Amino acid sequence: MDQRQKQTIEQATEQLTDLARQSFQMLADRTVALQERPPRRKSS
After folding, report:
1. What is the DSSP letter of 37?
2. What whole-number distance in Å separates Cα of residue 26 and Cα of residue 32?
3. How far apart are CA 24 and CA 8, in angstroms?
C-alpha cells in the first residue's frame, strides 16, 4: 500500500468517525429534548 492509499483511507476513516459522532450527538440531543418536553395528554 502506498502513501497515497494510506492517506485516502485515513481521510475516509476520519470522515466516517466525524459522521458517526455527529449522528450520536444528534440522537443524544433529541433524546434530551424529548425528555424535557411535558408529557402528552390523552385526548378522549
Report:
1. S
2. 10
3. 24
What does the block give as the cell for 34?
Answer: 424529548
> How high is the pLDDT of residue 22?
98
Classify each residue of 12-42 as buried b or exposed e, where b means 16 or more C-beta atoms within 10 Å of its C-beta.
eeeeeeeeeeeeeeeeeeeeeeeeeeeeeee
- CA 4/CA 41 separation, integer angstroms: 59
- The whole-model pTM stands at 0.68
The gap between the terminal CA atoms of the chain, to the nearest Å, is 67
Q: Report the C-alpha gap between 22 and 28 in whole angstroms.
A: 10
Give the total residue count for the chain: 44
Mean pLDDT, rounded, for 21-41: 92
